[in-house]
Amino acid sequence: MTDPIDSQYDKTPLPEPEVTDEDGDGEADPSADNGKDLSHLVPDTEVAWDAPPSFNLDPKDLSKDGGGPPAEEITEPSADLRIDLGALRTAEQSMLTEARGAVNKYEEVRAKVAAVKDSVFGQGATDKYEKGAGNSNSMAYDPMEGKSVANPFAATGETFAAEMNPAMERALLQIGSTIERLGEYIALLNHSGQVYAEADRKSRFPEPPSKK
How distant is the alpha carbon of residue 8 from its chain centre? Predict the structure, then answer.
């Protein structure tokens, strides 16, 4: 192992992982995820919108789904407000494009991990049996001839994979969850545009003052 290199760009590096050896055998103790299959936690991601919904649609009442207090009906005139819906739509489209790129890359990595995680660290590796290995009489009958034998590093690969596979799946969970949060933000951005558009449709001049 080599000592960590301090980066001139990363001013807040992550702390060194804590390695425990509670049984005192000189080896790191397994993590809580050791040997677990966490693939069920890894989310599938997709961009549901080919084009964002129109701002002219009535906005959904988020207070009902969010469990918060009901929205109060406002009857007093509001102060002046200004919104550039064109700029908002452009920003939304740009974020959707970035989200599609992130989803494509994430799904590519997720598929690769799922395809190779059972063998990429050398688990189950075998070697072709060499006739005469350890036998001075290479011409004698050898019942192992033509068979495969376990690679000496296969057991080490299994041990390493028991730690690395759950770690990779937790990393995918974090990335997938972040992409999902991005999708939620874009949806809220679109909702905001619909709210502003509805406010514009329902805006009116106040009643003229009473003659009294």
Answer: 28
